[in-house]
Amino acid sequence: MHQQGVRPGCFYCEHSEIQRARMIFITKLSTSTVFLNRDQTHPGRCIVALNWHVDELFELRGKELTQYIQEVADVARVLKSITGCKKINYGIYGDTVSHLHFHLVPKKPEDDDWDDAFINNPQNPITGKDDVNNRLISQIRQELEDRHETL
């Protein structure tokens, strides 16, 4: 697979303090790294970031694109199983953080924003408690590792 280097100033490429303040590492897959977003307004909200820098999804070709989208789908499947949500919302923005990444947001009909897009940066985010975050991280990591060992 063709993999590019890092982009200076990109917190996904540089694994910076800004990144650690916003998300918690879960696991690294073939083409992506999975993080638990510290904003747990929607429990289980994750980020699936490409392991090298591109700005746009269309910059990926062939096997790279297929593998990355498969990993996003795998994380979504695991999140739906663990959280019992009705729907996973997928967000790809990149206005201020251009590194290709998906926001995967589990949603339930009882959520205040059901039937609407999730708010990416809410004014009053709910941060998960450490024990809850650690349990989610462990469950997500185990299910993803089990799935990827069998592929």
Automatic annotation (TrEMBL):
Q: Where is this motif: Histidine triad motif?
A: 99-103
User: Molecular function terms in GO for this entry?
Assistant: catalytic activity
What Gene3D superfamilies does this protein map onto?
Answer: HIT-like
Q: Which PROSITE patterns match?
A: HIT_2
Highest taxon of the source? Bacteria
What's any GO biological process attached to this entry? nucleotide metabolic process
Q: Which residues form the HIT domain?
A: 11-114
Q: What is this protein called?
A: HIT family protein
Query: Which organism is this protein's natural source?
Result: Bifidobacterium apousia
